[in-house]
Amino acid sequence: MLKKIVFSKVFILFLLLLIFNVITLSIGDEESTITVVNKTSYYLHIIIDGTPFLYVQPDKSVTKSSEPVSSMLVNAFYSPGQDIKGSVTISTDIPYRGALQGCNCTEGYPECSYTPPSGGSVRLEITPNLLSNDTTGTGNVAVSEIWINDLLVAEAVPLVSRNNFSEFCLLGNNFSGTGTSTFYVDDVTLTTIGSVLYRDDFESYSVGTLPSADWVTQFSGAIAQISDNVAHSGSKSFQLSSNPNWARVEAFRLFSIPDNFSYDVWIYLAQSDRGAQVGFGKKESSNTYRAYNSVIFGNDNSIYFAGSGSSINLGSWTPGIWYHVKVICNFNYSQQTEKDNLYELPS
Q: In the chain, what are the domain boundaries?
């Protein structure tokens, strides 16, 4: 009985030391590694778990290593400036062994061991068959380009049809807890080919007021107002604050969506675990607003794009920094005219 009591107390102490980080255990030397190979005849943009590798040449590979994990997300698409479109998103399984620990009682004393997690490696080849030229199956709904901070991070991602919405929206993510969730936008531009539909830097309004009547409050949240707390350009921006589980949503009515449409906005998140969204949307009921084809700054500090398929991870965000978001949509993909003269491939 005494042996069992001594073992129990020591083992519990060992666990408590682990929990409170008094004992620091290294992850180990072995990492999880993924190597992605371009097996096409074109340049590829490859993004591995948010890390971009641009203009990867044919038959060249890129590699990312991390602490041991069981999978990594790979996005690949043809680099701009070429006469081909296509993309693929793959969640790639990686060999992985979790941590092992245990204790044995020898002569009244516990002997405890701990083996840290161990990762493996995997090789993924991106072939032309994976990169479908028609990513939607219909040839008439696609995203041309998604840009974050002037970096092209995704291309040819399927979109939800424009028949589902009729407004551009700024939406604060729902959150639990207390207080409010605040974000700011500035330098909003909505365009179609050869025409600016709306542009505003919010400098012409008084602090504490709402911007032009073109904006409609769809969900009241906490507050929306012109603010001089932060600004990307000038001294003012548009502030939106949400209450717990009740977002502030401001929408710019479009009424009709042209074949080619882009939204361009600067966004500033004030808190690390309370994000926001910019994109298209529709109010479905008194307590439901649904965003479409939107860039999401998630409450987990990751950036996503939500189109018609699974959300794509575009990287991470940090509070207190202005992010430049630009999404160029083509709702008639089969009639898209390539704009190769806008790009130059690397030499």
A: 2-126, 144-336
Q: For residue 15, give both structure tokens.
A: 């666990």
Closest alpha carbon to 325 in 274, 279, 272 = 279
HSE-CB for 319 with a 13 A CA cutoff: 14
Q: Give DSSP secondary structure letters for 273-312.
A: TB-EEEEEEEEEETTEEEEEEEEEE-TTSEEEEESSSS-E
Residue 192 clears pLDDT 60, i.e. is over it: yes
Contact 132, 281 (CB under 8 A): no
The number of beta carbons lying within 10 Å of the beta carbon of residue 342 is 8
Closest CA to 65 of 42, 87, 85, 36: 36
- What are 162's two structure tokens? 């424009």
β-pair partners for 247: none
Please give the C-alpha separations between residue 186 and each of 170, 236, 265, in angstroms, as whole numbers: 11, 8, 6
Q: Give the whole-angstrom CA distance, residue 37 versus residue 78.
A: 13
Please state whether beta strands 32-38 and 121-126 pair in parallel, antiparallel, or not at all (unpaired): parallel
The separation between CA 241 and the C-alpha centre of its own chain, rounded to angstroms, equals 21
**From CA 303, how far away is CA 313, in angstroms rounded?**
6
Q: State the pTM of this model.
A: 0.62
Question: How do residues 255-289 score in pLDDT, each as one tens digit?
Answer: 778 888 999 999 999 999 999 999 999 999 988 99
CA–CA separation, 47 and 272 (whole Å) = 24
Entry field: residues in the chain: 347
DSSP state of 173: P
CB 160 within 8 A of CB 282: no
337 DSSP assignment: P
Two tokens, residue 30: 């072995």
CA distance 234 to 232: 7
Burial class of 174 by CB neighbour count within 10 A (0 to 12, 13 to 18, 19+): middle
Residue from 300, 291, 328 nearest 170 by CA = 291
